[in-house]
User: Which sequence fits this backbone?
């Protein structure tokens, strides 16, 4: 399985719900291609280093996933291209081989650490858990 | 005495002396990540240009990785292509 990271910059307007709908669509797509989602991070709004489509702030989403069928990438990018909310995207290959079990362990550990420290700064994570439920770690202060 | 050519103005960020060891080789735990704009900023001038190896002191291998990361970060608007100085 190959591991990829896709960063998507969304327009800062639009509601959280609309964003979530989009993200769900993408995660479903990954699953449809029998891929595993390693994590989904929501970095929130950030000031852009330069204006994109005339906007100076953007909402960053990070998708970290592994898949065997690389056609997923094409499909994902096609969908991203068509979506108006998406200002920019970039997909990067992280590795050619992936040890899923090791990854799962890592993700588990990271989640536990984060929960211990009580950190939940707008990071929405989806780990390689069997249940595959999208857990939002809330927008706690 | 050797160099009589006029150098273009050197960016203010001449932080790293030349003979130093590469930052990343010295500390193996430092990772170069295009998402990490905060740390990448050290290797970029005020105008956003990538600092040459001879000034930053990084080794060739890490400089190449750095460059790749910086260029990626620029695409994602985490770093500017050109930054205006005041």
Assistant:
């Amino acid at each position: 399985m190959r591991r990829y990271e896709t960063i998507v910059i969304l327009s800062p307007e639009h509601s959280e719900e609309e964003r979530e709908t989009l993200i769900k669509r993408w995660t479903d797509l990954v699953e449809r291609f029998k891929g595993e989602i390693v994590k989904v991070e929501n970095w929130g709004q950030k000031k852009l280093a330069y204006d994109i489509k005339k906007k100076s702030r953007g909402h960053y989403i990070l998708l970290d996933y592994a898949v065997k069928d690389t056609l997923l990438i094409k499909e994902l990018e096609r969908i991203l291209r068509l979506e108006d909310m998406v200002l920019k995207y970039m997909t990067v290959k992280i590795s050619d081989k992936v040890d899923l079990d090791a990854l799962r362990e890592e993700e588990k550990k990271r989640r536990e650490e984060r929960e211990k420290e009580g950190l939940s700064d707008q990071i929405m994570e989806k780990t390689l858990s069997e249940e595959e439920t999208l857990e939002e770690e809330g927008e706690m202060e | 005495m050797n160099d009589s050519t006029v150098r273009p103005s050197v960016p203010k960020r001449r932080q790293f002396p030349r003979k130093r060891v590469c930052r990343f080789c010295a500390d193996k735990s430092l990772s170069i990540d295009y998402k990490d704009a905060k740390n990448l900023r050290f290797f970029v001038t005020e105008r956003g240009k990538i600092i040459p190896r001879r000034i930053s002191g990084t080794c060739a291998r890490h400089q190449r990785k750095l460059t790749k990361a910086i260029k990626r970060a620029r695409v994602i608007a985490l770093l500017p292509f050109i930054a205006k100085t005041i």
Summary: The radius of gyration of chain A is 15 Å. Strands of chain A lie at 2-10, 36-52, 55-67, 86-95, 124-125, 135-136.
